[in-house]
């Protein structure tokens, strides 16, 4: 009886752009429109009499027969695969995503199922692209918020740091100034000298902080002028070690590098001295008494490498990513004097000269800072 209505089916189905196919109770395809044939890559009438599983990927065929029989028995209009992805397979074996609507109907007391098939490849690609874009934007937003939070934390720490670093020496200066007025007798000169020295040291410390801030401003504005000359490295190292010896704690010592008398550089001498001084002073400050700070130097044909090794408090793992950030100070160093500017200044200067600085550190076990610089300016 259905065959007698093929002409009507063809007339109606060809007016629809979506794929239409009809199967009987044995899951045999008995009619399709041209849109279905084009969609699946078959020639005219080639799909007729083929089993429905011809259009179902092999990994989806398991259990499909049972599902179809259940639907056929209790059939009603519905959409297949609601809430999950559906795929169909073309004649060439390639698969593509589809949306399928099922519609049961009867002809001459015989039940058939008509499937409306829509190729949703473009829609899925767009959806996937949109989801990926949303995911990427969400990730970027999350990272931006995290970065902003870190910056706000750094700003808070910096304000607290500056307040502490200026307040402490200013309090010392004020106290010593007040006490000076009380020592008027000649035999009290030693006490006056003690407070004068305190004032001098505190003023010098504040001056160093201001110089750090001025260095930052010069680096940001590009006003730094480097003077490239040839100099013996031993001259710079001797100066650094001499000044550092005055800062050593009880029992601390500096291990002088070996075989550097013949090493020369053609760079900005003051910058190399600044970098080495900063790292050696930090090693002293953050190391306990009775420890050794080791300074190593090696030179090949193109580069000179410095290593400053200590057995100090080290840098906590969570703080290491920020250690070269301006104004940042590790959590275990907040009680010591410092602005968190020095390492940032050193890193910027070295990079301006074509060099680099890196470190390895374990909290409570010490740190090794490594500087690599070219032997001469390019």
Structural class designation:
alpha+beta
H/E element string? Answer: HEEHHHEEEEHHEHEEHEEHEE
Helical proportion?
Answer: 40-55%
Number of helices: 9
Given the C-alpha coordinates, what overall shape results?
elongated
End-to-end distance: 92 Å
Which regions contain 5 or more consecutive residues with pLDDT less than 50? none
Q: What fold name goes in the CATH topology slot of the largest domain? A: Heat Shock Protein 90
Assign the CATH superfamily of the largest domain: Histidine kinase-like ATPase, C-terminal domain
Radius of gyration: 40 Å
Q: How many β-strands, per DSSP? A: 13
Strand content: 15-25%
CATH architecture of the largest domain: 2-Layer Sandwich
Oligomer: single chain
Mean pLDDT equals: 84
The domain count comes to: 3
Main sheet properties: 6 strands, antiparallel
């Amino acid at each position: 009886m259905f065959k007698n209505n093929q002409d009507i089916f063809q007339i109606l189905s060809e007016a629809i752009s979506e794929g239409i196919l009809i199967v009987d109770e044995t899951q045999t395809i008995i009619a399709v429109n041209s849109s279905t044939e084009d969609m699946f890559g078959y020639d005219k009438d080639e799909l007729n009499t083929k089993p429905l599983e011809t259009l179902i990927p092999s990994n989806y065929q398991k259990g499909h027969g049972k599902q179809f029989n259940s639907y056929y028995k209790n059939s009603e209009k519905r959409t297949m695969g609601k809430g999950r992805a559906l795929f169909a397979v073309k004649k060439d074996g390639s698969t593509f995503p589809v949306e399928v609507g099922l519609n049961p109907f009867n002809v001459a007391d015989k039940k058939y199922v008509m499937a409306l098939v829509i190729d949703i490849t473009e829609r899925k690609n767009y959806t996937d692209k949109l989801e990926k874009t949303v995911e990427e934007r969400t990730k970027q937003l999350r990272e931006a918020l995290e970065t902003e939070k870190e910056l706000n934390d750094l700003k808070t720490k910096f304000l607290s740091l500056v307040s502490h670093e200026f307040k402490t020496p200013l309090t010392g200066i004020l106290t010593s100034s007040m006490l000076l007025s009380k020592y008027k007798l000649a035999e009290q000169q030693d006490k006056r000298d003690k407070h004068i020295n305190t004032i001098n040291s505190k003023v010098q410390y504040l001056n160093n902080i201001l110089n750090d801030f001025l260095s930052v401003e010069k680096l940001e504005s590009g006003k730094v002028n480097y003077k490239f000359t040839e100099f013996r490295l031993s001259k710079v190292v001797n100066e650094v070690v001499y000044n550092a010896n005055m800062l050593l704690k009880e029992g601390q010592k500096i291990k002088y590098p070996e075989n550097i008398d013949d090493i020369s550089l053609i760079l900005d001498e003051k910058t190399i001295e600044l970098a080495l001084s900063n790292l050696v002073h930090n090693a002293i400050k953050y190391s306990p008494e009775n420890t050794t700070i080791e300074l190593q130097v090696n030179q090949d044909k193109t580069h000179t490498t410095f290593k400053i090794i200590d057995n100090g408090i080290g840098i906590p793992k969570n703080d290491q990513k920020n250690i070269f950030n301006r104004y940042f100070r590790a959590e275990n160093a907040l009680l010591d004097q410092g602005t968190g500017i020095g390492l940032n200044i050193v890193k910027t200067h070295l990079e301006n000269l074509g060099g680099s600085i890196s470190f390895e550190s374990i909290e409570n076990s010490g740190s090794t800072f490594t500087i690599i610089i070219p032997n001469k300016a390019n």
